[in-house]
Recover the amino acids of this structure.
């Protein structure tokens, strides 16, 4: 059997934007207090997670402070096809850890460091899911782990500035089925498998922050995180019936790719009055930097064409007593994914979330914060070139819906 390389590559790489879809999930849950307030925290930044949200806030923290914890994320989604069939993706569960430390050096200088994961998650589909032959539609996994350090300087009692470096590692895995029956003219029934496994040695970025406290009531925060470009290396591996060994030979090889985690900038205003704190933030993410993916070893290019986004975050806190604080939040987060590249790998439309939480100030300078956030994702209608298998001529389309996230966060902090 002879197969034209060009035809095969067009089919298999038609939906390579799956890589970018996974990266569209920006994990912003780096502290349970901030999560409970809808991540509206850049103008407060008053615990050690300031290292992430706004390192200029470290100037507010006396002595040595440490905070650690994590977030459990559960996901679910489904695909409703035009012929009235419904296919459910496998429910996912992920853990997002973090730890941050700050120390005041003198009246003007504070330093901090942290380890966290701010991009991640993924999707899994069973063997019966109709889009399993599209690259990454069997399973997609992405995880970015970051190590950061920062220094803040209190210019005046009202104004603090900060800067820091970020070193980030990225791991990316894609799994899909290969339609052996189609490729063999109906002779071979058992599907093959195609796996990509990428990682890198890390890449550098930076982080800037400003905090201005106009008075005891009003504060304004600014934070900027640079884009980080990863030069990934790994392997492409096809496991298939020996009768189709030419496909395995052609596609099983070492591969490289370049992936950019986008820059983002946030601005927020907080107002405190008696027991109440209210904050409103806007977060810009430069997703347009993620315009394409190129894998030179397979001479494959995929246009992504993401749009920049601005999400809006609203947070509220009520100090019930010296021990207990109650919190709530709301987020509107528009999708960066245009309809031309939406697919089931990580279905994402505009998102709306609500959150609640509680904080406990305990003896000996211990604090425990708990948060719950519920996210509804509108999904979208999937009908574009990424869903067409050029080998079989089959076109996959349908309504991506039922996309829900449950977020449970816990942070434990102590002033040392």
């Amino acid at each position: 059997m002879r197969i034209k390389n060009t035809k095969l590559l067009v089919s298999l790489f038609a939906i390579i934007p799956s890589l970018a879809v996974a990266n569209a999930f920006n994990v912003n849950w780096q502290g349970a207090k901030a999560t409970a307030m809808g991540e509206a925290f850049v103008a407060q930044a008053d615990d050690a997670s300031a290292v992430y949200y706004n390192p200029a806030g470290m100037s507010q923290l006396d002595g040595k402070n440490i905070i650690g914890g994590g977030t459990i994320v559960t996901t679910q989604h489904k695909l409703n096809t035009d012929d009235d069939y419904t296919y459910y993706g496998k429910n996912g569960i992920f853990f997002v850890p973090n730890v941050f430390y700050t120390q005041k050096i003198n009246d003007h200088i504070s330093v901090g460091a942290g380890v966290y994961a701010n991009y991640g998650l993924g999707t899994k589909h069973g063997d019966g899911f109709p889009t399993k032959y599209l690259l990454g539609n069997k399973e997609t996994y992405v995880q970015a782990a970051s190590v950061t350090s920062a220094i803040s300087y209190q210019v005046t009692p009202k104004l603090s500035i900060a800067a820091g470096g970020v070193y980030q590692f990225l791991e990316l895995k894609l799994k899909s089925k290969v339609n052996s029956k189609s490729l063999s003219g109906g002779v071979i029934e058992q599907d093959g498998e195609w796996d990509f496994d990428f990682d890198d040695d890390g890449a550098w970025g930076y982080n800037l922050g400003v905090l201005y406290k106009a008075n005891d009531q009003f504060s304004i925060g600014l934070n900027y995180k640079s884009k980080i470009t990863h030069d990934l290396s790994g392997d492409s591996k096809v496991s298939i019936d020996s009768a189709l060994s030419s496909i395995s030979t052609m596609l099983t090889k070492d591969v490289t790719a370049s992936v950019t985690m986008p820059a983002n900038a946030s601005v927020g205003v907080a107002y405190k009055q008696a027991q109440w704190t209210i904050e409103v933030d806007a977060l810009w993410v430069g997703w347009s930097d993620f315009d394409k993916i190129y894998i030179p070893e397979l001479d494959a290019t995929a246009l992504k064409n993401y749009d920049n986004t601005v999400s809006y975050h609203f947070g509220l806190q009520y100090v019930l007593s010296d021990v207990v604080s109650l919190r709530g939040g709301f987020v509107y987060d528009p999708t960066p994914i245009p309809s031309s590249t939406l697919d089931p790998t990580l279905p994402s439309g505009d998102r709306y979330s609500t959150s609640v939480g509680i904080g406990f100030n305990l003896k000996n300078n211990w604090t425990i914060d708990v948060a719950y956030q519920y996210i509804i994702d509108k999904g979208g209608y999937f009908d574009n070139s990424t869903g067409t298998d050029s080998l079989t001529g089959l076109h996959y389309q349908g309504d991506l819906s039922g996309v829900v996230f449950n977020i449970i966060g816990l942070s434990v902090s102590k002033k040392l």
In short: The longest helix spans residues 5-12.
